[in-house]
Specification:
2 domains; Beta-lactamase Inhibitory Protein, Chain:B, domain 1; alpha+beta; BamE_dom; membrane; signal; disordered N terminus; Outer membrane protein assembly factor BamE; 4-stranded antiparallel β-sheet; BamE-like
Length: 159
């Protein structure tokens, strides 16, 4: 079962890599991005009138793309945000909305009534790793980050 899941993730990833290779910052347009990736999961306001399109590959994928379109409608950059460098930007006190904007929609959300905590998880592939891992963020009742961590994906451990 793990092999089938990882193979499906690989197929989605291969299509994404091909689509990204066919886009050129400074040349490709918003229409080109939508043709390759479809409707974004969310659209965020960026700097100087830009828009950031979120293309989410959770729950089974290990990537989330943030694609920036300039105010002129031309592609600025494509970023895969589920990586250690982006995770390091998640700091205690950040609002849940800031984390969502940084990492994209999480794979899983779990709220614990007694503690008032909400935990969000994103599946990712560590640099140099062979097995997907989870990056987890815990939020307090005020929906502010209280802690983060990485761990093996328990869903893959069960299979």
């Amino acid at each position: 079962m793990i092999t089938a899941t990882l193979a499906a993730v690989g197929l989605v990833g291969a299509c994404d890599l091909q689509n990204i290779a066919e886009l050129e910052p400074g040349v490709s347009t918003e229409a080109d991005v939508r043709e390759k990736f479809g409707q974004p999961e969310a659209v965020w306001d960026g700097a100087d009138g830009a828009q950031v399109y979120e293309y989410n590959r959770q729950p089974e994928g290990v990537v989330n793309y943030m694609i920036t379109i300039g105010a002129d409608g031309v592609l600025v950059k494509v970023a895969q945000v589920l990586n250690e460098e982006t995770f390091a930007q998640v700091q205690p006190g950040m609002a849940m909305e800031q984390v969502r904007r940084l990492l994209g929609k999480p794979r899983k959300v779990q709220t614990y009534a007694l503690s008032g905590e909400t935990h969000q998880d994103w599946r990712f592939q560590p640099k140099g790793g062979t097995e997907p891992m989870l990056f987890s963020v815990a939020f307090n009742r005020d929906l502010r980050v209280i802690k983060t961590g990485t761990m093996p994906d328990p869903d893959l451990q069960k299979r």
